[in-house]
Task: structure prediction
Amino acid sequence: MKSLKENFQKAHIVVIGSGIIGKFNALELSELGFQVTIIDPTELQNSSYAALGLLMGNMYQKRKGRSWDLRKQSIELWPQWITFLQKFNSELNIEKPLIQLTTNEEKFKKLEKFIYENNDQNLRILEGESIFIKNINKAFQTKNIKGMISIKDGRINPFYLLQTLDKYLKHKKVNFSKGEIIKIRKSNNQWISTTRNNENIKSDMVILCNSLKAIDLIDSISHNITLKPVLGQAMEIDVNDAEVDLLSLPKQFNINGKNIIPKSKNKLIIGSTDEYSTKPEENTFEKLTNFLDKKPNWLMKGKISKKWYGIRSRPDGEPSPIMKNLEDGLIICTGFYKNGILLAPACSKWVANEIKNYFS
Ligand SMILES: Cc1cc2nc3c(=O)[nH]c(=O)nc-3n(C[C@H](O)[C@H](O)[C@H](O)COP(=O)(O)OP(=O)(O)OC[C@H]3O[C@@H](n4cnc5c(N)ncnc54)[C@H](O)[C@@H]3O)c2cc1C
Result:
């Protein structure tokens, strides 16, 4: 009889959840030759479709420990994956750089110290004489904005990314099933995932990538895993003011914690909020535009043309994300909170290594 190791290429892996994490795991595993099935009932409503797609990796100020290691790996892996995925969508790219700004002198001093201590050529301080700062001060009618620029960080458009992954997965004949998994169990060395319609899907392994709902499928108490919902709202604003040209601004930047992405001369995206709830609060415009002492007129008069939200899962009592081998053939990869797009490559690599070890 052949062992699982000999049959490694024939092993079937079920990925529950098809947000960025489920899709990225499926990509990595199908490249290794596994048979993969992704199961998700409502993939267009997940938090991945709500994301802004910023990759805040190199600008992360804690330069040691697990969070930094994952970020560092992802920053290195993303350009390679983008080159690979461009075969399926030539428009997919990482828009660089990323700029982080503040009006708070203490926070700026911290940024200066961080850059000075790390001596990283990809990070630089931005002050008044920089063209970026001049344009931002002019547009936002401010004088005291400063910050840093990170050459290696940037943004991937999450919508293009998810669509490109779909194209790739279709090309690789990865199965998609529209079910909602309500139970998983092990029987005779196989995993059985049961959908709400009572369909049983058998596999050699299961990877839980279904965010908050992952804990409904496991004994979360004995595994000691708690996830909390953190809702994030974002909006697109139309600005009808000839005084400001939003295209004079950098492609993506952050002022006092709010991310800003100019889309055209008179349209920009701002995100996101941090709401410890599953229902969006109502004062979206105020919550997202109060990042300066005084708003410029054009922003005050801006009109929301689109708004959306996503519910992120945040681990309680341990750092984000949760990546654990729960038992033979069962892995959890979830709880990404704010950084699922950034961390997808590093975390999928970790999962793939665990799986390779399992079958060897
Ligand atoms: C407004 C906003 C802005 C953001 N901006 C950024 C950013 O700039 N950069 C960044 O890196 N991250 C950002 N994020 C965070 C990022 O979106 C998340 O970290 C990431 O999407 C998490 O991906 P996921 O695949 O774990 O979860 P999700 O995308 O939520 O996917 C989980 C999937 O599991 C499915 N599912 C649930 N239960 C079941 C079940 N029982 N059976 C089958 N399927 C199931 C759901 O339908 C869903 O499709 C942002 C988030 C929000 C809300």
